[in-house]
Automatic annotation (TrEMBL), chain A:
Sequence ranges assigned to domain Leucine-binding protein in this UniProt record: 33-368
Secretion signal span: 1-30
Keywords, in A-Z order: Amino-acid transport, Signal, Transport
Domain of life where this protein originates: Bacteria
Protein name per the record: Amino acid/amide ABC transporter substrate-binding protein (HAAT family)
Higher taxonomy: Bacteria, Pseudomonadati, Pseudomonadota, Alphaproteobacteria, Hyphomicrobiales
Family: Belongs to the leucine-binding protein family.
One of the GO BP terms on file: amino acid transport
TrEMBL record, chain B:
Family indicated by similarity: Belongs to the binding-protein-dependent transport system permease family. LivHM subfamily.
Membrane topology: Multi-pass membrane protein
Protein name (record): Amino acid/amide ABC transporter membrane protein 1 (HAAT family)
Swiss-Prot/TrEMBL keywords: Amino-acid transport, Cell membrane, Membrane, Transmembrane, Transmembrane helix, Transport
Species name: Roseiarcus fermentans
Signal peptide span: none
Regions crossing the membrane: 37-57, 64-86, 98-121, 142-164, 196-218, 230-255, 261-282
TrEMBL record, chain C:
Compartment annotation: Cell membrane
Topological relation to the membrane, as annotated: Multi-pass membrane protein
Segments traversing the membrane: 33-50, 57-79, 85-104, 111-134, 154-172, 207-226, 246-270, 282-308
Protein name, UniProt field: Amino acid/amide ABC transporter membrane protein 2 (HAAT family)
GO function terms (MF aspect): branched-chain amino acid transmembrane transporter activity
InterPro entries, per the entry: ABC_transp_permease, LivM-like
UniProt key word Transmembrane helix: yes
Length: 421, 290, 315
């Protein structure tokens, strides 16, 4: 009997030792950082936005750690340069997940990069937030993919929606449209969106020839457009092209009631300062701007921090385009981790689907396909830009929000010629 | 559907652009056509020249055209150095075709990355005021950013042509291209002549770079767009003939613009390169071949 | 012939050992990174059949790779064919295009062939971009099945196929070296005019080389859409493929099959490692500098430095 007791005691002692060991292990774990892994273009054609996004994410990590981290653990970013080449993406994500053992992942910048990462996220049942991807999940229908671009379930239509919302206000109604887009996925979706919008409004498309992505001189193409004398000109271009098309429009003296719409890259300071006054009159989509109604808790703090660091980091100095989104992207992921007290993909995914998140770019709620439940895009017009100085493009004095109506900070100047002077 | 105004403007703009292409291709015509050195890094040197002009513009407020005067001698020296390496490593070994090509391919890549490391991938552009003005003659518009590179390229080609046909060294270089042994028998050093000619080709690339900065914003990898075009022009122009180069370049510019009008811009590259493929297959000595 | 089968046997054993080792490591990263390296082994060896043995430089590697990829995509849209069939079809199409290009331009000096391949890449990219059936400019999704029998995950299956292709390419390369075909190739490389004069059927030999080289590149391209999930013309025609496929044989050495294999394994692995360590533009800088360094200082590549080039004939 005594013997038995002693055995039990010994067992009990063992149990306590094991428990103590386990506790010690947990407290060691507490110091362990939560690692968030992603690929981001630091070289190649996407690097401009990629670098801006990376700086924003680093600022988020600093802010989060200053608040005590996540679940009491510090956060750490683990990232590699995908060189803007999707072929580098699958090895990077498997390295992150299988070798670096990151706890959470995030996406790199733009559609092809996100597409290459998605199947790997699916294989590991991880949540993937896609930064500025167009319809990445339409074919895959992955329940843990969330798009950080306010384009909604049908991005093709939304790409041109703000443009047409404003065009609908014109009197008399415009009846003809010309489209200028390159032969790439982005251009294709602008074209598709424009066709749908035109059909819904009974407008006629008078020019829709695409151009090769390597093209740099657009004077002839813009003249062809001018020859069709359209009411509206939808331009859906990529960064380098946007600059060259804008210049050709200025040189040829193209006139229409509205010109622009989806000119990516015109949001960057470097494009704006190359064009200077030649940018006047163009309308363009915006996802976010520091307009009074779009200043949410943290927005301006973030911009101040970003702008203070941007120069030293050699990235876009103003940072209205991709940076706040990269920050908000991680805010949502962090809120889900705090909300579920978990790092499991299934729980996080369900939580993100079920909740609305307060971020520096506003309230975010996702629909069933992982896109924004309600699209929210704006149209701005460049007005009264006098010089090539970067200050012209800070704030909303010369970047005037012209739509949707309830968000307006100014009126559309139309026709285009009037804004040109 | 296609109006006269549109057609006239397309042709004029094609001529202006083509004229600029001729400036870019002039150096390649010398190195490839006369010296048999397939410098596929030639467009990369052009982009380097553009960045050189950009830096001079930013630091000292120099206009790209003035900056070109400083870029040219530096590029001439660089050309001498590159040829020294090329000659020692490939020409002398008689092993120049494949490895030489790979050498320039590597050079192009390294050049691109160096520019990325120094300047990032953002677009850079001249701040010269004339870059955003146009002259109008009747219905035809002549934007200065196209007209100036067109005229600049004409100057480049004319200067190179005068040098080759009127000076002693120039004629000797043409002689080397024909028959190196004969030149050696005449007491001249063919290697030195080739080195000078190659350095000139690089100097021309530098000058064309300054013109490129006037024409459009540049980024480090933009040279890739020119590789095919430059060699197409050099081949079409008859390998080593500068007037032929100019005519071929202008033709290419006009063809690209007309394709854009009649079939859509997305077919323009295929048409001009298809044209090159056909020429290579049917008349490899070029349209204006010797 | 028995020497050939002995070599093939050894190559198969080496491949099996490699595959087993990759499985033993037990994580997907090895497979994803390994796939890229193996793809480059195939591309480098294929490039070398024409570039190294015959001395004709092909800058259009990406075009042949993309042909294979898009042939697969086109087939997949017509009927759900298995990946190996796509690879074969991609090989046939790319081989035929190689033959056509060769037929048009191989009667010219080598340098014109190189320029023609550059032009070919542009023309093909334009055609593909305008061909909506395979996605065109909008791109196309290729969703890989979650599971495949025997291999478990699809990436392992893709690695297995690429490894098989690598064995085939290496075996064919070696067979060329040891046969009369290889002798003819070397004769062309050393002095084409003399070869022609002594009765070597130069055009026919060169056409065989372009067709073979193009076909292997096309076969290597067929699985690409599944690797990337989303294929755009700009990713299929990426210049990086050309740079690497030229740099690898030149760094390894072009006179025998071992050179491109060594170059691809070393440079390909180094790139994968650098991507996740230094991770910046420096990655590309290293490729360029190595390429320049080797062609200038070590014209016979690594196998020359290691003293492995027993049979080199040219000066």
């Amino acid at each position: 009997m005594r013997q038995k007791v002693s055995v039990l005691r010994r067992l009990g002692g063992c149990a306590i030792a094991v428990l103590a060991g386990a506790l010690a292990a947990t407290s060691a774990l507490a110091a362990d950082p939560i690692k968030i892994g992603f690929s981001m273009a630091q070289s190649g054609p996407l690097a401009g936005s990629g670098k801006s996004a990376l700086l924003a994410m680093k600022i988020w990590a600093e802010d989060q750690n200053a608040k005590g981290g996540l679940l009491g653990r510090p956060v750490e970013l683990v990232y590699y340069d995908d060189q803007s080449n999707p072929a580098n993406v699958p090895p990077i994500y498997t390295k992150l997940l299988d070798v670096d053992k990151v706890d959470l992942i995030n996406s790199g910048y733009a559609t092809p990069i996100i597409a290459a990462a998605l199947p790997i996220a699916m294989q590991h049942d991880m949540v993937l937030m896609g930064l500025f991807g167009l319809a990445n999940n339409a074919k895959l229908n992955y329940d843990k993919y969330f798009s950080m671009a306010p384009t909604g379930e049908d991005p093709a239509k939304v790409a041109t929606k703000p443009f047409f919302d404003v065009a609908d206000q014109l009197v008399p109604k415009p009846s003809t449209i010309a489209v200028i887009t390159p032969d790439i996925q982005f251009g294709h979706s602008v074209l598709e969106g424009t066709r749908a919008a035109a059909e819904a409004r009974g407008m006629k498309i008078v020019y829709d020839r695409t151009f090769p992505p390597s093209m740099t001189d657009f004077s002839t193409l813009v003249r062809e457009v001018q020859a069709t004398n359209p009411d509206l000109v939808v331009v859906g271009t990529q960064p380098g092209q946007s600059i060259n098309v804008a210049r050709a429009i200025a040189e040829v003296g193209l006139n229409a009631r509205m010109i622009g719409g989806s000119m990516t890259g015109l949001q960057t300071t470097d494009a704006e300062t190359i064009l200077g006054p030649q940018i006047n009159g163009l309308v363009n989509f915006a996802y976010w701007l520091p307009a009074p109604k779009l200043q949410f808790p943290g927005s301006m703090d973030f911009l101040a921090k970003y702008q203070a660091k941007a120069k030293a980091a050699g990235v876009d100095p103003i940072g209205y385009y991709v940076a706040p989104w990269a920050y908000a992207d991680l805010q949502i992921l962090a809120a889900a981790v705090e909300g579920t007290k978990s790092l499991e993909g299934d729980k996080l995914g369900a939580f993100i689907h079920a909740n609305t998140f307060k971020t520096i770019i506003g309230d975010v709620q996702f629909g069933p396909g992982g896109e924004w439940a309600k699209p929210r895009t704006f149209l701005i017009q460049f007005q009264n830009v006098k010089s090539k100085d970067a200050n012209e493009f800070t704030g909303t004095d010369h970047l005037v929000l012209v739509g949707p109506p309830d968000m307006k900070t100014g009126d559309l100047i139309t026709p285009f010629d009037k804004a040109r002077q | 559907m296609v109006s006269f105004d549109l057609l006239a403007n397309a042709v004029v703009s094609g001529v202006l652009l083509g004229g600029f292409y001729a400036g870019v291709a002039a150096g390649a015509t010398i190195s490839f056509g006369l010296l048999d050195i397939a410098n596929i890094a030639h467009p990369a040197f052009v982009v380097f020249g553009a960045y050189g002009a950009f830096v001079l513009g930013q630091r000292f407020g120099l206009d790209p055209l003035v900056a070109a005067l400083f870029v040219v001698p530096v590029f001439y020296l660089a050309g001498l150095a590159v040829h020294q390496v090329y000659h020692r490593a490939f020409e002398r070994r008689g092993d120049d075709s494949m490895r030489g090509l790979a050498f320039f391919f590597g050079l192009m890549f390294v050049g691109e990355v160096v520019l990325i490391l120094l300047f990032g991938v953002d677009y850079r552009y001249t701040s010269a005021a004339y870059a955003s003005t146009s002259i109008k003659i009747g219905p035809v518009a002549l934007p200065l950013r196209q007209l100036i590179p067109f005229l600049g390229a004409l100057v480049i080609l004319a200067a190179a042509q005068l040098f080759l046909s009127r000076t002693f060294i120039g004629r000797a270089i043409l002689g080397v291209a024909q028959d190196a042994t004969a030149i050696r028998l005449m007491g001249a050093d063919p290697v030195r002549l080739k080195r000078i000619a190659f350095a000139i080709s690089i100097a021309l690339a530098g000058a064309a770079g300054a013109l490129l900065l006037v024409l459009e914003p540049v980024e480090p990898a933009i040279g890739r767009e020119f590789i095919g075009r430059v060699f197409a022009i050099a081949v079409l122009g008859g390998m080593g003939s500068l007037p032929g180069t100019w005519i071929a370049a202008v033709m290419l510019g006009v063809i690209e613009n007309l394709t854009s009008i009649f079939a859509g811009a997305s077919w323009a590259p295929a048409v001009s390169f298809g044209f090159l493929l056909l020429t290579l297959a049917v008349r490899p000595s070029g349209l204006f071949g010797r | 012939m028995s020497a050939f089968f002995r070599f093939l046997g050894l190559a198969i054993i080496a491949a099996c050992a490699l595959f087993a080792a990759m499985r033993a490591v037990g994580n997907d990263y090895v497979f994803y990174a390994g796939y890229t390296v193996l793809e480059y082994v195939v591309l480098a060896c294929a490039w070398n059949i024409l570039g190294g043995y015959v001395g004709y430089v092909n800058f259009g590697v990406a075009a042949f790779l993309a042909l294979g990829a898009y042939t697969g995509v086109a087939l997949g849209r017509i009927a759900p064919v298995p990946l190996p069939v796509m690879m074969l079809a991609g090989g046939v199409v790319a081989g035929l295009v190689g033959l056509g290009t060769g037929y048009l331009t191989l009667r010219l000096r080598g340098i014109f062939f190189a320029i023609a391949t550059l032009a070919l890449a542009v023309v093909l990219q334009t055609l593909i971009t305008n061909w909506d059936f395979v996605g065109g400019s909008a791109g196309v999704y290729a969703i890989r099945p979650k599971h495949v029998p025997i291999f478990g995950s699809y990436i392992q299956y893709m690695v297995f196929l690429m490894l098989t292709l690598a064995v085939v390419v290496v075996a064919v390369s070696r067979a060329i070296e040891t046969s009369g075909l290889g002798l003819g190739f070397v004769a062309i490389r050393d002095d084409e005019v003399a070869a022609e004069a002594t009765g070597v059927p130069t055009l026919r030999l060169k056409l065989i080389a372009t067709a073979l080289s193009g076909a292997f590149m096309g076969m290597a391209g067929a699985p690409l859409p599944y690797y990337l999930t989303f294929l755009e013309p700009s990713s299929a025609f990426n210049l990086t493929y050309a740079v690497n496929s030229i740099a690898m044989p030149l760094i390894g050495g072009t006179t025998m099959w071992f050179g491109p294999v060594l170059g691809a394994l070393l440079l390909g692995t180094a790139q994968q490692v650098i991507t996740v360590t230094i991770s910046s533009e420096v990655n590309l800088l290293i490729v360029g500098l190595l390429l320049i360094g080797f062609v200038v200082l070590a014209p016979q590549g690594l196998i020359g430095l290691l003293g492995l080039t027993g049979k080199r004939r040219s000066a």
